[in-house]
Write a structure and sequence with these properties.
single chain, 171 residues, mainly alpha, Ferritin, elongated
């Protein structure tokens, strides 16, 4: 729970910085979106190795499949637009928080892992979805990038709802 609050704070700090100075550009937005997807792919792969519940394993497989597909579309779009993703404080905060969470989850097994992973997926998708909706989509200048982010948001909102349903069944 503390990690989830820390994660939310890490995302809000860069948003505050952007609000006070320049807003994120398309190259930074692309990097943030790709990084968020890569993090969930890695988390899903960890869950595929450690989860004991078949429902959690199926969810993890869905995360790997869907986030890989979106990231592949993002890479293709960036190549088409000749845009190089630009690292930034939000991407760095996401990566740092994900590394801490992966280490935390690596110490768990069985039902404890399943609960912690799914709870993190609920919090992660909520944070990423809010960031997409409130920061990334409104600041995207390129129409194709904005459309990809909007499509991703719909998919990731369904992921959040799916994780919430699973979380309500795990004991």
């Amino acid at each position: 729970m503390i990690r989830d609050a820390l994660f939310a704070c890490l995302l809000l700090v860069p948003a505050t910085v952007w609000a006070q100075s320049a807003k994120p550009n398309d190259a930074q937005i692309a990097h943030i979106a790709y990084t968020a997807g890569a993090i969930d792919i890695a988390a899903g792969q960890q869950a595929l190795e450690k989860a004991s519940s078949s429902e959690v394993r199926e969810f993890a497989q869905e995360m790997v499949r869907d986030h890989q597909a979106v990231n592949e579309k993002a890479v293709a779009l960036l190549k088409k637009l000749n845009v190089t993703p630009q690292d930034n404080p939000t991407s760095q905060a996401l990566t740092k928080a994900a590394e801490a969470k992966k280490a935390e989850l690596s110490k768990l097994s069985g039902a404890a892992f399943d609960r912690a992973y799914i709870q993190d997926e609920v919090a992660y998708h909520k944070t990423v979805n809010d960031t997409l909706k409130d920061q990334l989509i409104p600041n995207a200048n390129n129409a194709e990038l904005k459309a990809l982010l909007e499509t991703g948001l719909k998919l990731f909102q369904s992921h959040q709802a799916h994780a919430e349903r699973i979380a309500s069944t795990l004991r």
